[in-house]
Amino acid sequence: MILLSGQQTRPATTKQMTDTLRDRNKQVARDAVLDAAERLLCSSDTADFSMRALAAEAGVGFTTPFNHFGNKTAIIRAISARLIERMAARFQTKTKPDGLIDRTFLLADVAVELVLKQPEVHRAVIGSLGVASSTPSAVMPQSQSLWSLVLEGKTSELARDAKPVANQLPEQLALAFRGCLSFWVAGEIGDEQLCGTVRRAVSLVLLGLVSPKHRVRLLTQLAEG
Q1: In the 8-state DSSP scheme, what is residue 164?
Q2: % of the chain at pLDDT higher than 70
Q3: Residue ranges of the alpha helices (H) in 50-118?
Q4: CB contact at 8 A, 17 and 28
Q5: Range of the structural domain that residue 26 is part of
């Protein structure tokens, strides 16, 4: 904050300090529940857990998970949202190249690395997200927000007539990534194949938008597998 001459900062009020502490405690409790859910998903043969077991694993009262999330579906969705947030945060810590293609490949690599860090957990979470629910999830906008990070004005590699539709790229990249994950969850794509599969999928999305000289690069990479 820049202060003008004679101005002084106002100390936080008791209410502001109380609200901040309450928010911090709330986040700590939420994270404890989500961490416990991930441990249970990882250790369970059925990739499932009861809310009572969850509360015990988290070291909180039985009603705490309900108070913070409402139900098990919301907890699974919160784990998914946290994973996407971690992908974005990890991507932001990397030294990012200037080109759109390389930025997309970097995010693809980061995303796959985090998914495979806890494959049992993420198979269960992603698989659960595919089940119909009366309340739609927010995975699509969250995923679009993640893949929008590769764009951020980096349109020099796009064909001139593709630039007006560049805003659709994050959605298509999100769809391609989710498609790869769906087949991975089903066991049709192995852990060791996932990164290459995602790279090829996003390459095909980019192929329709980049300029001719960059198409050659993508086609060469696709041909090499």
Answers
A1: G
A2: 92
A3: 51-58, 64-69, 72-93, 100-117
A4: no
A5: 16-70
Q: For residue 126, give the amino acid letter.
A: I
Number of domains observed in the structure of the chain: 2
SS3 210: strand
Paired tokens of 51: 């809310």
Tell me if residue 158 falls in helix, strand or coil.
strand
Distances, alpha carbon 57 to alpha carbons 11, 45, 50, 75, in Å: 39, 16, 10, 14
The model's pTM? 0.85
**Which amino acid is present at 150?**
V
Exposed, middle or buried, 52 (CB in 10 Å: 0-12/13-18/19+)?
exposed
Q: What is the CATH number for 66? A: 1.10.10
Q: Which two tokens stand for residue 5?
A: 């001459």
What are the residue ranges in the chain where pLDDT is below 70?
1-12, 14-19
- Tell me, yes or no, whether 98 and 158 share the same domain: yes
Q: How far apart are CA 218 and CA 206, in angstroms?
A: 8
Measured distance CA(114)–CA(122) in Å, rounded: 9
Residue 206 shares a structural domain with residue 106: yes
Question: With contact defined as beta carbons under 8 Å apart, do 202 and 173 qualify?
Answer: yes
